[in-house]
Structures are given as C-alpha cells and as structure tokens.
Design goal:
Length: 594
C-alpha cells in the first residue's frame, strides 16, 4: 500500500475510532443483583457510568471494535515515514500528508452547494466562520477535501486540516490554532468539531479570535443541533451555515452517476450509494442498516447535542426520557411512527380503491362463476388478514408512552436536522381547512422502513395460502403504490425548495385532488399538476385538472390557470393540450430556478 492510501486509511480509521467508546466494562454484585458500569479515564481520573443490562453487549462489542481499530492504526502509522512537524496537541495534517489525504477524491464530482464554500474561501468575507453540517454520509468531509484541492499552491501551503476526536478539548484546539497562526497558516478546516464536549459553550473562540484576525475557519460536524444552538448563542451573526443533509434527485444523478427515480426512491438521501463517483455501500440497503443509521445519525445526534448544550439545560420536556435512558429509543420510534403512518395510509387506500380486495358487489356480480367467487373470497381473506395486522400495528404504536409534547419537540429537532419538511395541504371549497404533509427528505430511509412493514403485513397466514403468482402480484402492487406516493412527495418537496417565491401545495376537493399546485402570488396565477407513477399516458390521468368545476374553484381562489401538467415516468409529450413531463427531466430542470 502506497503512502497516499495509507494516509487515507489512517484518516478513515481515526474517524471511526472517534465515535466508538473507550475504556472497559465492569460488573458488580450488589446484594445478589448484577450491575454493569462503563469504566473510562478522563484527565487522569477513573469514571464509572451505569449501563443498562440490555445495552451491555453492544457497548462491549463497540469497545472491542475500537481496540481492534487502534491496533490496526498503530501498525499503519509504523509504515509511514517520519517527517518533521510542528508540535500539535491534536491531529493536524499539513503539507505532504494533507496532499495525500485529499488526493483520493480528485476525480469525484462536486455537489452544487460547494459554491457557498468557494465564496467564503476565495472572496473577501471577514470575521465569520463557515459551518458545514449535516447527517452522516452526506458529503461534508468530501466537500472540505475538494475545496482544499482548489487552492493555489501558495495557498495550499497555508492550509491545515484538523481531525477532531472526543478526547480533544477546546483548549487543545486553541493552542494548535495559535501555533498555526504564528507559522502563517490562513486556511484551517476542522472536521467533526462537535465531538468536543466543550464546543457549543466555547464556539465563539473561532470567530472572535481567529476569523477576526484574518483566518478562514471551516467547521464540520454531524451534530446539526449543536451547530444550531451555537448559531443562536456563541456564533450569533458571525457564521455562514451550509446544511448538506438534503440531496436532490439531480445531484443523486449528476454526482453519484446513478439514474432513475426508482433508484432515488430506494436509496436516495446519502452520498454513499456505489456508483461512478462514490463507492461506499448505502445505509438503506436493508432494514437493519437503516435502523442503525437512524439510531447513530439521528437519535444519538439529537441526544448528544442536547447533552452538550448548557450542561443539558435545553432538554426541556425530554429531560425525563433522557434521565430514564429512553430518549434514543423514543426518537427512533417517532421516526418509525411517521413512516408507519405513511405506509398504513398507502396500504389502506390501496385496498380501498384498487382490485386487490373485493366488495360484496364483486361477489354478487360474479355469482354465476364459482371460480371467480372462490378467487374473490381468497383475496377477501387476505384483505381482512392484512387489515387485522394493521390494527395490531396500530395498537402496538398506541401502547408506546410518547406524549404529544414529546412528539412535537422531537419533530422540531428533526426539522432542524433537515430530515423532515412539511408541505401544505389545502381544501376547496372549505378554505379554512388546512393540514400538512410530512415528507422525509431522505427517501431511501422511508422506503426501507415502508418495504419492511409491507413484508411484515404479508406474513399473514391467509396471504401465505395464496399461490406464488397472487402473492407476488399483491406485494408488487403495494410496493408500487408506495413508490408512487413517494414520487408525489419528492416532486412536491423539490418544487417547494426550488421555487421559494411560489406557493407550492396539494389541493384536496370533496372528490379528487390536484397532486400539486404552484401559485405565483405576484401574478395571481397558478399551474396545476397530476403526478402519476406510470410510464403510460391515459385520459383518466388528467380528468381532475380538466374538471371544469374544480378549475373554476381554483381560479376563484388562486388566480388564472396558466398550465396543466402530468408528471410521470414516460417521455415528454403533449396529449389533449395537457403537457406530459418526464419526472427525472422535471426534477433536473428545477436547478435553473435555484
């Protein structure tokens, strides 16, 4: 292995070690009861923290994983040639070692949001730090490496990359920054800075001392809440923030080199899916990996930020859950609950409106044909079985003691993390009635959980009595309906984010709906859309946007209709004066309006 690959491997191992627990696990017998403690050493003092019995195995496994990685790291470092370096307290890379670290991503394509980072680095922006934050695997560290590659040779020699670990303190970083400043370094990039326990309380150090003296300081980390809290307090009005969590379809295609709305629905949300430009595996390939991602990237993200901020003073109504050791599980359940509700809504509407289940009228219609009657009765049993399982799932969710206050506060934090966005749902003629559609910005996460729920539902014994063709048909139909609903949400979300000067919403009528309305409040006009998960055209698809009564109500409320469209998976064309738009082409076209 050459030096460049060794340095890259060292950096990856150090990043992994940084989030794994150190120390060991001790066991005590107190009056016949066994208690477990996580034993660590901080500042020369031994500290023991109580560990719940059901968390011991995972803790031991992670500690062993850390020890194994530390041994591997030691061997790798022995392979590296010795070089002269400044006496840093933390892991600082400069010169050749920094060049080796960044060279591996030389041919990676760049996310659009790198332009904000370019503006900060290359333009005359003083007295501010740049904050690059977002959930894991959304390209933060890659963006830093890419911008370092864009530096001229003279500026590169003034650049430093600091890999933060949980062992580092703000005082250590302060000493290293002083040393870098003394030696003429101008560009400093600090990765995973929120791992420091005292970061939130002392973040003003970066803007008040170093950015104000001319240094360009870029801070990166996965604890989005930690940065949000710092912006409101320590870094108020002294930072530029770039959130990487939301990855639109066009970047999924352009940067990863992977094509198709179905692939985006299945895996979209991170920069990890193996493709032309990024080669790691996706966290949404199966339900186990998805739940692991939710646990580490979302639930523990929130909990870590709350624990670090104001010595835990921002837990508010979540403090009781944290003190009982239940907060991480509750956050997980809130995320799952949103996706369960979405899936149940799709499954129930599918049985209600499609031919998977049958009604008494179907049986009466086919009473002369015993074969058809028997077929309908089989499907009716399946419908009833799956609805019963949905009822059981409802009861299981209702048995979880999560108050509305807890749910509301956790959703606030999920919104700050950019994991969820809300789309307006409006009604006609009931103009005072309004509600919201909650969209998960990482579609792969939602689809993985939805797929697992559907597969669970179809374990019903009545379903298993059907032959393989019928079982396959029902499964494919349900998953197709889920993908269709998710495609609607993706189009709504990306349109809303791209057209910030427009009002983007879904419009519901007593019978039927417009899947999307884009209103221009300045011109008092609107465009109306149907969104269909189909690659075929049919007049039935646009019956609502051609309905005179619905259109008259829409014009009265929102202004003249300037366009009628069907967004689908087929080719761009026109049918009966209705514009048919390919969904991938439409989503990529939104780039022009940003």
């Amino acid at each position: 292995m050459d030096n460049e690959k060794i340095i890259e491997h060292i950096a990856e191992i150090e990043r992994e070690i940084a989030v794994l627990p150190a120390g060991g696990v001790s066991k005590k017998n107190v009056h016949g009861n066994i208690y477990y403690y996580h034993r660590i050493t901080q500042n020369g003092k031994r500290i023991e923290k109580y560990v719940k019995a059901d968390e011991v195995d995972e803790l031991i496994s992670n500690i062993e994983k850390r020890k194994k990685l530390e041994k591997e790291l030691k061997k790798l470092k022995q392979c590296m040639p010795k070089e002269k370096n400044l006496d840093f307290k933390t892991k600082v890379l400069v010169g050749d070692r920094l060049k080796s670290l960044i060279s591996i991503i030389r041919n990676y394509k760049k996310r659009e949001c790198i332009q904000m980072l370019r503006d900060y680095i290359f333009k005359d922006i003083a007295d501010k730090v740049f904050i690059l934050y977002g959930l894991r695997r959304t390209g933060k560290t890659t963006l830093i490496r890419q911008i370092i590659l864009e530096l001229s040779e003279s500026d590169f020699n003034k650049a430093a990359f600091i890999q933060i670990t949980s062992k580092d303190s703000l005082s250590d970083i302060d000493e290293d920054l002083r040393l870098l400043e003394k030696n003429g370094y101008k560009y400093v990039f600090l990765d995973e800075v929120t791992l420091m326990e005292d970061f939130i309380e002392g973040a003003s150090l970066f803007s008040d001392i170093y950015a104000s003296s001319g240094m360009k300081i870029v801070l990166s980390g996965t604890d989005s809440l930690g940065f949000a809290f710092s912006k409101e307090e320590q870094l108020y009005d002294r930072c530029i923030m770039l959130h990487t969590t939301f990855i639109p379809y066009r970047e999924f295609e352009n940067v990863l080199g992977i094509y198709g709305i179905d692939e985006y629905i299945r895996y979209g949300g991170t920069m990890s899916l193996g493709g032309i430009n990024y080669n790691a595996s996706t966290p949404f390939s199966n339900i186990k990996d998805t739940e692991e991602y939710i646990n580490t990237s979302i639930a523990k993200n929130i909990q870590h930020s709350l624990k670090m901020y104001q010595y835990g003073g921002h837990f508010r109504q979540l403090l009781d859950l944290y003190e009982k050791g239940e907060l991480t599980n509750v956050i997980n359940r809130v995320v799952e609950d949103m996706n369960h509700r979405f899936t149940k809504n799709v499954v129930e509407s599918t049985f209600k409106s499609h031919d998977i289940g049958v009604t008494a009228n179907n049986l009466l219609r086919d009473r002369v044909d015993p074969i058809n009657i028997r077929k309908h009765m089989e499907l009716d049993k399946v419908t009833l079985g799956i609805k019963n399982m949905l009822d059981i799932l409802n009861k299981e969710e209702q048995s979880i003691d999560i108050s509305d206050v807890h749910m509301t506060q956790i959703k606030e934090y999920l919104a700050i993390l950019d994991l969820i966005k809300e789309i307006d749902l409006e009604y006609l003629p009931e103009v005072n009635q309004k509600s919201k559609i909650v969209v998960v910005t990482q579609p792969g996460l939602r689809y993985a959980q939805a797929e697992a729920i559907v597969e669970n539902l179809l374990l019903d014994e009545k379903f298993q009595e059907l032959d393989i063709q019928k079982r396959t048909h029902i499964l494919e139909r349900l998953l197709s309906e889920i993908r269709g609903r998710m495609m609607e949400d993706i189009v709504l979300l990306e349109t809303k984010l791209a057209k910030k000067d427009k009002h983007v919403f879904k419009l519901q009528f007593p019978i039927g709906e417009f899947d999307m309305v884009v209103q221009d409040p300045k011109t008092l006009s609107c465009e109306i859309y149907e969104i269909k998960y189909s690659n075929q055209r049919a007049r039935e698809q646009y019956r609502h946007i051609n309905d005179e009564e619905k259109c008259a109500m829409t014009i009265h409320r929102y202004g003249n209709i300037t366009g009628r469209y069907v967004i689908y998976r087929g080719e761009n064309t026109e049918m009966d004066s209705i514009q048919y738009l390919n969904v991938e082409d439409y989503l990529k076209s939104l780039e022009k309006t940003r």
